[in-house]
Amino acid sequence: MKKDLLKISDLTKHDIDEIFEKARILKENQKNGIPYKPFIGKTLGLIFEKASTRTRVSFEAAMYQLGGNAIFISSRDSQMGRGEPIKDTARVLSRYLDAVVIRTFGHDIVDEFSKYSSIPVINGLTDLHHPCQVLTDVFTMLEKKGNYKGIKAAWIGNGNNMANSWIEAASILGFDLFLACPKGYEPDKKIFEHAKKQAKSDIKVLNDPKEAANNADVLNTDVWASMGQEQEREKRVKDFKGYQINKDILKLAKKDAVVMHCLPAHRGEEITDDVMEGSQSVIFEQAENRLHVQKAILEKLLQQI
User: Fold this and answer.
1) Do 122 and 52 belong together in one domain?
2) Residues 222, 261, 286, 292: which is the catalytic one?
3) Contact at 8 Å (CB) between 112 and 86?
4) Known catalytic residue: 294?
5) Is 24 considered catalytic here?
6) Catalytic residue among 56, 181, 262, 294
7) What is the pLDDT of residue 275?
8) One domain for residues 119 and 139
9) Are residues 156 and 114 part of one domain?
10) Is 4 a catalytic residue?
11) What is the number of domains present in the chain?
12) N or C, where is the chain less crowded by C-beta within 10 Å?
């Protein structure tokens, strides 16, 4: 495995399988109250330019439960927010910390930080990729469906960083992925074309949510306007009309299909309240799995040092 996790395509199928098996064991141990603290004396830095609930709390809890410590650094508290070169910050923090999670806007920021960092760098979210969340989603899918073979996952809504990372995951792991996005809101073209060349499964970008949902094993979505796009909200509400996971869309999927959402959700927009609270929703177990999958990621990266 590479030193850093910046995008899912940094991983091989073997890497992902190892992460998922470790996450399964860590989750089971946590449920059974079995302590496991390999990171005593280790410190994780969290550099966040974007607000967060799940990413911050799950990484902090993960590090504490593994015996280490976490330090949160917001943009207003760091010299990066005042114009210090990224390469300077990366080289200094490499001498204080054992790993760093960065949650920011441009993906070029994590790329540059990684270039000058001597410790593992984890992408906690950029505008282009969200690898930790999508690894968690796929782990949840695997828990519920048992394998990747013959699985059809449907993404309905915005072709954003989540959609990009789902595309990479499908190309590596071999499940089918149908993405339904309004025109002009499709996933990144380079990521999609590269994944299509590598994939042995069926990956399609469509404009019809009904076609994507038809006979799907998994229905997944995200907010229509991500952080930094709030000023476009009114326009997006109009553009995304019909791209909602609701009971009619759910009826098109398989009877045992599961519904996912990475949260936070705008109930009544991209997903209805009844579906989110329904028996086929695995949304809150999916949220819990961030903790277990990120523990596994941290252990795999830090063991390489």
Assistant:
1) yes
2) 222
3) yes
4) no
5) no
6) 262
7) 98
8) no
9) no
10) no
11) 2
12) C
Catalytic residue among 103, 129, 236, 261, which? 103
Q: Is 262 a catalytic residue?
A: yes
Instruction: Verify whether residue 194 is a known catalytic residue.
Output: no
Looking at the domain assignment, is residue 270 inside a domain?
A: yes
- The edge-to-edge listing of strands for the beta sheet with 203-206 is 203-206, 176-180, 152-156, 218-221, 258-261
Check whether residue 138 and residue 281 sit in a common domain: yes
Whether 103 is a known active-site residue: answer yes
At 142-166, the pLDDT tens digits run 999 999 999 999 999 999 999 999 9
Whether the pLDDT of residue 82 is over 80: the answer is no
- For the stretch 191-226, pLDDT in tens is 999 999 999 999 999 999 999 999 999 999 999 987
**Strand 203-206 with 69-74, pairing:** unpaired
pLDDT band at 61 (very low <50, low <70, confident <90, very high): very high
User: DSSP letters of 112-162?
Assistant: HHHHH-SS-EEEEE-SS--HHHHHHHHHHHHHHHS-STT-EEEEES--SHH
Range of the domain at 75: 8-130+290-302
Catalytic choice (133, 244, 286, 294): 133
pTM (two decimals): 0.96
